[in-house]
Structure formats: structure tokens, C-alpha cells
Amino acid sequence: MPPHPVITFDEHRQELILTGTWLPRDSAATESAKILMRSAASSVRGTLYINCKRLLRMNSPAFSALLDMLCWVKKNRPDLCVKIIVSSVIPWTERRFRVLISLLGENFSMEQYDRQFYPGQAAVEDASFIPVLQTQAKIIWEQEQHILARHGLSPQMKVADICCGIGSFAMQVARHFAPKLVVGVDHSQSSLIYARDLAKEFHLSNLEFIYGDASNLLLADNRFDFVSCRLALQIFDKPETILRELLRICRPGGRIYLINETYSRCFGYPNADAIAWTYRETSGLYGALSMDLEFGPKMRAYMTEAGLADIYVEPLILTSCNTNGSDFADVIRSWETYAIDQLARNAGKDDAYCQRLREGFAAHVRSVTHEKGFGGWPIWAASGQKPG
Amino acid sequence: MTQMADSMTMPAAIRLCCDMPGFVADWRRCDQFSNFLAESFSLAKADPFAFSNMLSTIINEVLETIFYHNSGRGSLTLQLTEEDMATVFRAEFAVDSATRSMYEDIVSTLANQDPVRLYEQLLFHVSSADTRNICLYEIAADYGVRLAVENGSQKGLICLVVHMDLNK
Ligand SMILES: C[S@@+](CC[C@H](N)C(=O)[O-])C[C@H]1O[C@@H](n2cnc3c(N)ncnc32)[C@H](O)[C@@H]1O
User: Is the pTM of this model over 0.90?
Assistant: First the structure.
């Protein structure tokens, strides 16, 4: 039988994967799909997964074909559980399958895979993270704007900023690099609301913010000239999955641009030891949520593995000399609030520990604001070309 | 075929007309029209992709129903508007009296009974030959849309009206 255009069966994972748009004219046009799905359902044990993460549209005849298999399972395989996996990014799936599952009864369930799909998700998507992004954006852009041309950003490009957060970078690119289009994607609704308001305020019409999952982007292949993903690969436990998606949406010859940190190496003088302790610990607290805030120097390896060419990595080290000291201090204070209120408290750390963390952050603030002090934050910028 | 929008970026209303024989000649028109209407209408929405994905899904179901249930004559006029925070889709086309009754029955049944129960009945207890109009029950049950049938602008025409609350 030739492969079905919408359905594939992954035997190993016991997963029927439905992808794209499935709009058959009538039930006669679903015969091969029915055969494929039934044979899959008869071959598995335990749980059959129906993966609809990328199922963009489906009509009634297609739905009936799926139902045909589900009813067959209900009647003939009472030993089997069926789990339908949907995505919050495709809104109809959750609503349609919720009703179906309620009608099918026991053994049938639905899961929204992107509700809790990596350990630190709730923390990063929470609105409490917005102040961190706001203050950071201000000091990073001052330096970053000067390196972007070196990494291949030029006018008239189609740019995607994946994990765009509150949209500051996408907006700055739209304002200063004359792009054809900038699309920002993020999975935090609260950040996206902020981003869209910002775009409205600046009357930028070549800028669009969409809700999406970086590991399952619904953007077309080869669509963008420049794909950025900033301070984000480091928060995923499987960065290679995201990198693969960045590569897919980038056109051959286009460039992928990443920035990531070595957070534990934030530095300052005086009180260098207290500062070093606090950042090592905070990096560890992020690590407990499977986030790797030491990812910066690993980018080259990941990019090479992903098949990128012409890889270029450089430091983007922010210091109290190349940024405004009081803005830098605001960033550190926002880190402190987040590290103590969200990370340390949730990790069950005691008051003494939190106090010691505070002292390190306070010392860092002093180092970047004192006239004789010096402090910094090491970030690394990397880009590579998608082979043509 | 015509498209009218109040402004380039914020279409408050979009209208699309074609002749019915042209529409029923090719099944893919359901998909093409629903995509075109939904994408154009969603341009100015906060999340154009999510809005248009939901909207095109619903419009496609309505068009697939009309594809099978119409007189085959005259024209098909489709219109999308925003009314009191709801998105409203109207389809005007010619029907014979039996088809008109079919649409009216569906609308009054849905207005008086639980759409999910009705949909369940059709889904599990009726043979597939009788379920060509299941799409209308389905969009009422799954997406909570409200349906109405109004007289068309001329004799022999009906206007199928679909109210959707997609801002949730
Ligand atoms: C550390 S922030 C960086 C934001 C932005 N790039 C910046 O530099 O300000 C990481 C961002 O990744 C987003 N994110 C997390 N998981 C995501 C996913 N699966 N898909 C898309 N965005 C995601 C978060 O909501 C958050 O806005």
C-alpha cells in the first residue's frame, strides 16, 4: 500500500501520527486510512497513541474514519487504551476531541501535550518572568545590535524569532533592520499579550506574534532568511529538537542565530566570592528544572551536529562599562526576585540559604553601580548557515 | 468572485460570491473558500493563526454541508462579519422546499435539544448514508456555534447564519 498522505504509524512508539490537512470528499475516500488505522490498532498492546500535534484541519468524513477505528477498538480490544494527543496551538483539536472522548467512555483519553511538556515550563511562561525579560532586553540590545550584521542579518529579510518572549528583539529588528517580515513565536500567552501591545504602540505592521511550540512549529519549511532563538535553547531539556525545527523553517543558505549564557560565570568585584557563589547556586536551581544556563559554549557542538555550516561564535559579554550600570542593576534585581521567590522557595530552600543568595545579588548590584567596581554577565552569540 | 473588506488590515466584513454550479463542480472549493475567508478575516486578530484555524474549520464544515444540500442553481454568497463580539458567517443560496425544510429542521432541533446528545445519536446510531448533514450538529456540539435560517434576499434563497464566539 502506498504511504498515506496524512497518517503514518510508528510501530515502535505505538503511535498513529496524523499530520497536516485531511479533508476527504466522502467516506469512500478514507478506505486506505481505515485499513491503515485498523491494522495499527490490531497490532499494538497496552496503549495506542493518536498524535494530532500537527493535525491542522480535519473534516467529518475524516473524523468518521478515525471514529470507525475507535469504535472497532471499543468493541474488539477492551484490553487496549487509546490516548489522543492534541496541542493547545491548534484550538479546534482540544474542543473536538474532548467531546468525542466524553462519548467514548473508559479506556479513551485525551492529553494536551504542551500543557506540561518540560519541567520548567510553568516557571518560564508565568507572567512573573516578564520583568526579567523587560530589564534584560534593554541592556542586551545596546550591544547585540552591533553584531547582528556579522551574523547575517540584513535588510529585506524574512525573520523568525522563536521563543520571542515579550517581543523586544523582534520589535527592534523590525524597527532597525528594515525586514520584509518578522514573525515572533512563543508559548507564553502573557508574554505574547505584552508583545502585541508593544507592536501596536510602535505601529509596526510587518511584525506578527503567534502562539506556538518551538518543538513543533507550524511554520512552513524553508520560509525564513534569518531564524533567531535567544536565551531559549538553554531552557529545554532537548535543545536538539528545537534546533531541528529552526533549521527546517530556515531557507537553504539562510542563517540560524542563537544566544545563550554561562550564568554561573556572572562576575563582579568587589566581593567576587559571594557573587560567584550566588550565581553557581542559581544556575543549579535552574538546573533542577532541567534548564542548562551554562549552554553558551555548547552551541557550536549542537550546531555542528545539526548540520549547520560556517559556524561563528563570539562573546557578547555585558559589563558595567559597556551598558548603563543602573539598568544592569535592575536586571540583577529582577534575577534576584525570580531566583528567590520562584526558584529557591519552590525548591524548598530555607531562609538562611535565601539570605546568602540575596547577599551575592546585592554584591553584584554594588559591583555594577559603584564607581570603582566592575561586574558582568557572559553571553555567547552563535550563528550558522543552513547548507544550500 | 469578489472580495470586499472595509480596510486592508482590518476586515470587518468580507464577502465572496460565486455561481453554485462552479462551487459544486469541485469539492476542493470548500477548503479553498473556507481558508481564504478565514485567513483574510483573521489578519487583524491578536493571534491570526489560531483564529483562522478555528474559523476555517467551522466554515469548512458548513460549506461541505451546502456542497451536498443545495439546488445546484443560482449563486452562492458567503459573508463574514463581526457583530457584538461574535463572528457571524452567512451563506445565501438557492434551495428547493425539501432542502429548505431540512435546514430548518436541523436549526430548530438544535435550538430545542442538547447538541451533544443529538450529535452522539448521529455519530453512533445512524448509518453513514444519513449523516451527510452531521457537520452542522458537530459544530454546534463541539464548538458551541448557534445556527439560524433566514429568508434570502430573493424568493427561493435561504440564508444560513452561523454565530460563533471565537474570542474565548
Ligand atoms: C528566557 S526566555 C527568552 C525570551 C526572549 N528570547 C528574550 O531573549 O527575551 C525563554 C522564552 O521561551 C518561551 N518558551 C518556552 N517554551 C517554549 C516553547 N515550547 N515554544 C515556544 N516558546 C517557548 C518562554 O515562554 C520564554 O518567553
Answer: no
Asked if B56 and A57 come within 8 Å (Cβ–Cβ), the reply is: yes
Chain B positions touching A210 (Cβ under 8 A) are: 47-50
Question: Of B46, B54, B64, which has the smallest distance from its Cβ to A91's Cβ?
Answer: B54
Q: Which of B47, B57, B135 is the closest to A210 by Cβ? A: B47
DSSP 8-state secondary structure symbol assigned to residue A284: H
Residues 6 or more apart in contact with residue A237 via CB below 8 angstroms: A118, A119, A290, A291
Cα(A301)–Cα(A307) distance, rounded to whole angstroms?
Answer: 10
B62 pLDDT band, cuts 50/70/90, is very high
> Domains, chain B, ranges and CATH?
13-164 (3.30.565.10)
Residue A92, CA distances (Å) to A58, A88, A152, A322, B14 in order:
10, 9, 38, 48, 22
Residue with cell 469541485: B26
Q: Does B68 touch chain A (CB under 8 A)?
A: no
**Nearest residue on chain A to B143, alpha-carbon basis:** A95
Check whether B4 has a pLDDT greater than 70. Answer: no
User: Is residue B60 less than 8 Å (CB to CB) from chain A?
Assistant: yes
Ligand 1 pocket residue status of A231, Cβ below 6 Å = yes
Q: Is A67 on the interface with B (CB under 8 A)?
A: yes
Q: Which residue has the cell 433566514?
A: B150
Q: What is the mean pLDDT of residues A310-323?
A: 97
Q: Is B1 exposed, middle or buried (0-12, 13-18, 19+ CB in 10 A)?
A: exposed
Reported ipTM exceeds the 0.85 cut:
yes
**Chain centroid to CA B105:** 16
Grid cell 483519553 is found at: A109
Interval between CA A188 and ligand 1 midpoint (Å): 7
User: Does A219 touch chain B if contact means CB atoms closer than 8 Å?
Assistant: no
Contact A159, A153 (CB under 8 A): yes
Yes or no: say if A255 and A151 are a contact pair by the CB < 8 Å rule: yes
CA distance A282 to A81: 42
Q: Write the pLDDT tens digit of every residue in A6-53.
A: 999 999 999 999 999 999 998 899 999 999 999 999 999 999 999 999
Predicted local distance difference test score (pLDDT) of residue B11: 52
User: Which has the closest alpha carbon to B40: B89, B76, B84?
Assistant: B89
